[in-house]
């Protein structure tokens, strides 16, 4: 009697579950019919729903044995294809990050973590990503290297939206028209900053047209390079740096990529050296500000490295003219680049882009950045205290050191150093490898 009652209860549960699934299926079908975002329904969702109904029917009319199935959720992440029926809009995001612990911005490098990978993890976690990375029409303005930071990086992609969109067919392409007001839209800054790590933050967002590309629509980029000005001839550095202004062939001021880059002419629009509001004892922090339409691989760090040699008195400012004359110097002299940590992508310039942020998100952003500043000041204070606590060198130790003073290596002028292969030699070597 007890077994018969259990069987009746299970059969009633199956029937009730079947009705619930059919109601959900009807609800989804109604939503897809009323939505004009996509003319085609998501076949995979339909197949999944039909298979669930078929399974329920078989369990109702099958044998008395019922097998319990445990459905395991996919953790972490989610299938972005299920978001395709949601409204979406094409937006640009202004991003800042402190790059010390990252292996660059782009996720293509086979190293982790990268800024890009962390951003997409946050997009998936917050369910803002519609489709995969390719379907989102993702683009980035700058591809900063390992250790480089940014306060004005810009990316663009499709994100889920609360506002309804109107889709019109225009010769096979879909033209999207969005409401101009921002009321009722998702607070992208607040949502993303809650999911991002502490050293990455979104500053603002802006709707952009469909043809927008964060890389190719950019009119100019500005980099800052921070350095301590002690024992440097800043006037000589600034005089030499102004020689970069204009359009030049910068193959002697970059890491050459003969496989992908064939034109090494770039335009620098401004150059300046200015003090910052930071001091350490008697040492002043300075910033080299370089602005241009685009930059080559490691171009800024190579330019700064040569400027440091000029500021230290090892090279004359005229060495800039010589290195920019690629007919005279077709091969780059071997020299080390400037360190990557002080380099910052300060801003990216676009026409008509006005990034916005809600007052609540801005307040939370200010509080977070202020806390990060305090944490780094505490760390600096600890190291400063350790510096002050160092024991003075005893006279006996000084005499020992004077007896074993290492000879300082003399500076080798850039024009006398070994050179790297020229662009033509690199291309010839690549062609030989390709033939082989």
Automatic annotation (TrEMBL):
Record-annotated Pseudouridine synthase I TruA alpha/beta domain positions: 242-351
Residue segments, region Disordered: 401-436
Gene3D superfamilies: Pseudouridine synthase I, catalytic domain, C-terminal subdomain, Pseudouridine synthase I, catalytic domain, N-terminal subdomain
Domain of life (superkingdom): Eukaryota
Keyword terms: Isomerase, tRNA processing
A matching Pfam family: PseudoU_synth_1
CDD domains referenced in this protein's UniProt entry, alphabetically: PseudoU_synth_ScPus3
NCBIfam families to which the protein is assigned, alphabetical: hisT_truA
HAMAP family xrefs: TruA
Similarity field: Belongs to the tRNA pseudouridine synthase TruA family.
Name used for this protein in its record: tRNA pseudouridine(38/39) synthase isoform X1
Organism of this sequence: Prunus mume
Annotated gene: LOC103336176
